[in-house]
Amino acid sequence: MSASDGSESFTFTITEEDKANFKRLDQFLSHKLVDQSRSYIKMLFEKGEISSPNAAKKIELKKFPDVGTEIIVNIPPPAPADAIAENIPLEIHYEDEDLIIVNKAAGMVVHPAPGNYTGTLVNAILYHCKDIKGVGDQRRPGIVHRLDKGTSGIMVVAKNQKCHEGLVKLFSTHDITRRYECIAMGKSFPTGGKLESNIGRHPQNRLKMSTESKAGKHALTHYRVLKQFDKVAHVELKLETGRTHQIRVHLSQLLHRPILCDPLYGNPKEHLQRIGPELSDIIGDYEHPFLHAKELGFIHPITKKELHFTAPPPELFQNVLNHLNGC
Fold this sequence. Notes:
Responsible for synthesis of pseudouridine from uracil. This protein has helices at 16-21, 25-32, 38-46, 121-128, 161-172, 246-254, 268-275, 277-283, 315-324, and strands spanning 8-13, 50-51, 70-75, 92-95, 99-104, 152-158, 177-185, 192-201, 209-210, 217-228, 232-239, 291-299, 306-310.
């Protein structure tokens, strides 16, 4: 139920079926509240926004309540929709009156969301492009595609509505070239091929995507191994579709070869142990997957000029490759 201030309240009564399907309350709530992440649900719980009027004992997120327990969840009104311009440096590869091409750093979130309302690419773009507000979604003006927080690389941002609509169409019809490179775990990596499946939200973990989701959408990735090393491979990937976490899901779930240091679809601690102390020392406490969007090509939706951009991987990524190559 929604209130006039934008807050919402939900009441759930635990059933026998719920008890059979879920082991923890946070799993149950993330399944019911499809727009909220597990971390956001945890924050609500810590702020006292998740309660029960009839529980026999104090409810806990890590445990599942008894059948018949009522769970009340209050979701506060959303933060202001308009992102704030921030003077954040951008690596700009190209810009005209319609669009801008940037090389996003690993660790930068693309647009504001719960837990990341500042320091995002959108905050930086708003400072650089003063007239971009109102282009597309007001919560993420100019954004037509995204890279994961931990993924570095080339992105295009629209500076006006006509260009935004044109770029959205290019992405929806897959008339755009997107190539990535990564360092993935695994010996005897298949030399190349096609990875195809449906991808949708993971049924038990809202932060993850899965090839087993019944509500998934078609996803297609082409890949080829650039070089096989002892414990890892340097891999190039070309996207035909653009599903959330597509490359990370396809490599980890279809090939069972997760990207090096992927905290969501792999095990970074295990990865570092497997690759040896010298390479582990180079990587240090780096907390992102070694995945880089290296190439973007498309026909400019306004000028109809063919555009093509590339960006080398970040310094640490290249240092790891240099070490693997014995440089």
